[in-house]
Amino acid sequence: MEGFPVIDLSKLNGDERSSTMEMIKDACESWGFFELVNHGIAPELMDTVERLTKEHYRKCMEQRFKEMVASKGLEAVQSEVGDLDWESTFFLRHLPESNISEIPDLEEDYRKAMKEFAFELEKLAEQLLDLLCENLGLEKGYLKKAFYGSKGLPTFGTKVSNYPPCPKPDLIKGLRAHTDAGGLILLFQDDKVSGLQLLKDGQWVDVPPMKHSIVINLGDQLEVITNGKYKSVLHRVLAQRDGNRMSIASFYNPGSDAVIYPAPALVKKEAEQIQLYPKFVFEDYMKLYAGLKFQAKEPRFEAMKAMESTVNLGPIATV
């Protein structure tokens, strides 16, 4: 199997633009994942975010996690645990409205760093969506507008996770296998402790930890909008006996009331002209996903297809 795709985004500005665009295209079509280096986010900011995230875990999260493990008797399990994950998490919302100021226990310098990091990730997400448009033959800005709800904004948030050392990694997953429900996912992961894997051609493949990289993966909504040309991919996190793995995953998703459907231009391009995916309101999909996250995505699409006749399908917002 060819190596995991690592893409130097700075090469878009020189003679290697066309080959770099081809690498992005192949990664989207064949992997659903790729890793970006030289993506424009300052290494100093990433170092600050990593340091403060790890400090916050030690100060505010570690003891709570140990108490949860003890209360559930997880260190003594003898058979595979299938209903929970070996992770300590909290969530930040950036758009349409930020809740960073409301999260308890965050030091002021941590709030400031996460706000700045989210701003940089938002710019990177929108740049990537336009690169995907270029590769797909869609007009510039199409995917960004497709994500807009009535407020003219996407939903954008961050899941901050730590995966502490696990005494029974063969019996408990760090995070069970799933595809992501949303649009574009941008991950800043630990560069020393591994664990993230994706399923490709029936085999689990490691996503390599790299210093200052951003891992990109495609969510279910991009599969729908591209009419299956790009696909969301099953991935999981393995728990590890040694090391605490940091994971900061930011989700650039459609607005809650955005109507999602295959881009007409892509449906027309197909020889058969078959629309393979349903039209639906993103919020309805998320309600369904909440109970079915760790199950196959295909029944979710079928369920949305059954609801399709009730959706009022207006044009894509252009604000």
Radius of gyration: 20 Å
Which H/E pattern describes the elements?
EHEHEHHEEEEEEHEEEHEHH
The unreliable regions are 315-319
Helix content: 25-40%
The whole-number mean of residue pLDDT values reads 94
Strand order of the largest sheet: 1-2-9-6-11-4-3
Please give a structural write-up.
The chain contains eight helices and 13 strands. It is an alpha+beta fold and 319 residues long. A hairpin with a 2-residue loop joins strand 7 and strand 8. Helix 1 packs across helix 3. It is globular.
List keywords for this structure.
single chain, 4-stranded antiparallel beta sheet, 7-stranded mixed beta sheet, 8 helices, 319 residues, 21% strand, alpha+beta
Q: Summary?
A:
This protein is α+β, with helices and mostly antiparallel strands.
What topology does this entry show?
Layout: E1 6-8, H1 17-30, E2 33-37, H2 43-72, E3 88-95, H3 108-136, H4 142-146, E4 155-163, E5 173-178, E6 184-189, E7 196-200, E8 203-206, E9 214-218, H5 220-225, E10 235-238, E11 245-253, E12 259-260, H6 264-269, E13 280-281, H7 282-292, H8 298-307
Helix pairs in contact: 1-3, 2-3
